[in-house]
């Protein structure tokens, strides 16, 4: 797996461009996300636990916004069901290329159908597990409900959706505190104040967060019967939604 050190925002020349999942990001993404998202490694470990619990025989698993394949691999290495297939989807050619290389080095009997496409165009059927690990936040707000509704429609009864997101907090004081703590976390991971500030500028018009309550309401409206927050660290959460 490509794991170069993320120094994308160490440059001081001008305002940074809006964040894109291009080749430059793909080369450092493993380092970037592990140093930017508190609890990311634990989230992946628990996706493996959830996969073992929810994936059923002869069903499909979808990893939407699969990037380098970390969630796909967590699922693949923990499935105990037979004759299941993982469908991993990402619209970034650079991410798909790196993901394919990572999957080729993974030993597993569970096949992976790797698709270079927009998840808004993906069709869903016979799904026992769907993961969106920090993906929905990059989808336009007005398109989120329709996407989640199509996912729910394509899921088997009792299937699970893992939805991990950066969130907005309902109160200004809480928002400010959690933002400060997140920035302190990034500083502890070795990012400079310049890098933290430039990354924030780069992503502020690209990543649009929702509150926990907005996520819960939308998931219920989409057709999920249960929605539980199973993980939170500062302004990052992961939800488990059951069809």
Automatic annotation (TrEMBL):
Keyword NAD: no
Xref: InterPro entries: CmoA, Methyltransf_25, SAM-dependent_MTases_sf
The enzyme's E.C. designation: 2.1.3.-
Known catalytic reactions: prephenate + S-adenosyl-L-methionine = carboxy-S-adenosyl-L-methionine + 3-phenylpyruvate + H2O
CDD domains linked: AdoMet_MTases
SUPFAM superfamilies per record: S-adenosyl-L-methionine-dependent methyltransferases
Positions with a binding annotation for S-adenosyl-L-methionine: 40, 65-67, 90-91, 118-119, 133, 200
Record GO terms (molecular function): transferase activity
Keyword Aminoacyl-tRNA synthetase listed: no
Domain Methyltransferase: 63-159
Keywords carried by this UniProt record: S-adenosyl-L-methionine, Transferase
A Pfam family of this chain: Methyltransf_25
Family of this protein: Belongs to the class I-like SAM-binding methyltransferase superfamily. Cx-SAM synthase family.
Assembly notes: Homodimer.
NCBIfam families: carboxy-S-adenosyl-L-methionine synthase CmoA (TIGR00740)
Described purpose of this protein according to its UniProt entry: Catalyzes the conversion of S-adenosyl-L-methionine (SAM) to carboxy-S-adenosyl-L-methionine (Cx-SAM).
Descriptive protein name: Carboxy-S-adenosyl-L-methionine synthase
């Amino acid at each position: 797996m490509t794991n170069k050190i993320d120094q994308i925002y160490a440059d001081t020349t001008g305002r940074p461009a809006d964040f894109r999942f291009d080749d430059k990001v793909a080369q450092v993404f493993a380092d970037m996300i592990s140093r930017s998202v508190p609890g990311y490694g634990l989230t992946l470990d628990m996706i493996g636990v959830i996969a073992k619990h929810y994936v059923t025989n002869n069903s499909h698993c979808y990893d939407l916004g699969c990037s380098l394949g970390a969630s796909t691999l967590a699922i693949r290495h923990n499935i105990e069901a037979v004759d299941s297939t993982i469908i991993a989807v990402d619209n970034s050619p650079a991410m798909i290329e790196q993901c394919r290389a990572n999957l080729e080095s993974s030993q597993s009997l569970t096949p992976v159908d790797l698709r270079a496409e927009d998840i808004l165009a993906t069709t869903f059927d016979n799904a026992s597990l769907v993961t969106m690990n920090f993906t929905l936040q990059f989808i336009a707000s007005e398109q989120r409900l329709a996407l989640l509704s199509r996912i729910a429609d394509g899921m088997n009864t009792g299937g699970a959706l893992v939805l991990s997101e950066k969130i907005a907090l309902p109160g200004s004081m809480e928002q400010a505190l959690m933002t400060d703590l997140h920035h302190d976390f990034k500083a502890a991971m070795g990012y400079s104040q310049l890098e933290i500030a430039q990354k924030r500028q780069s992503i502020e018009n690209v990543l649009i967060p929702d509150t926990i309550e907005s996520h819960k309401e939308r998931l219920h409206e989409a057709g999920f019967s249960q929605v539980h927050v199973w993980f939170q660290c500062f302004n990052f959460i992961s939800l488990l939604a059951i069809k």
